[in-house]
Amino acid sequence: MLKTRPLKGKKIVITRHSEGAGKFAKGLRGLGAETLEIPLIEVRSAVDRLAAGDVFASIGTYEWIVFTSANGVHHFFEAFFCCL
């Protein structure tokens, strides 16, 4: 544990979805912060299976696939392995 708690006395609102907030909040509390979790987004998969099948059928022609979040990676591969 840190000898100093640089966030002591600070209140921090965490707006991440509930699955991702816990570990982050724990780290902030370890630094002395008081946290309040208010999720402003909900992460869920909404895959059109027909469209996904078309995309995955031609995926070998792609040079790059860029993901902008860990959630995107998770849901992509969940759909990929489901539709094979």
Task: Describe the SSE topology.
Layout: E1 11-14, H1 18-30, E2 34-37, H2 49-57, H3 70-83
Parallel strand pairs: 1-2
Q: Fraction of residues in helices?
A: 40-55%
- The domain count comes to 2
Strand % is 5-15%
Rg over alpha carbons: 19 Å
Unreliably modeled segments: none
Mean pLDDT: 88
Main β sheet profile: 2 strands, parallel
Number of strands: 2
Strand order of the largest sheet: 1-2
N-end to C-end Cα span: 47 Å
What would your notes on this structure say?
It is built from three helices and two strands; from the N terminus they run βαβαα. 0% of the residues are buried. The N and C termini lie far apart (47 Å). It has 84 residues and is mainly alpha-helical. A two-stranded parallel ribbon has the order 1-2. Helix content is 43%, strand content 10%. The protein has two domains: 1-42, no CATH class; 49-83, no CATH class.
Question: Which key terms come to mind for this protein?
Answer:
84 residues; mainly alpha; two-stranded parallel ribbon; 3 helices; 2 strands; elongated
Short characterization:
With 84 residues, the protein is mainly alpha-helical. The protein has helices at residues 18-30, 49-57, 70-83; strands at 11-14, 34-37.
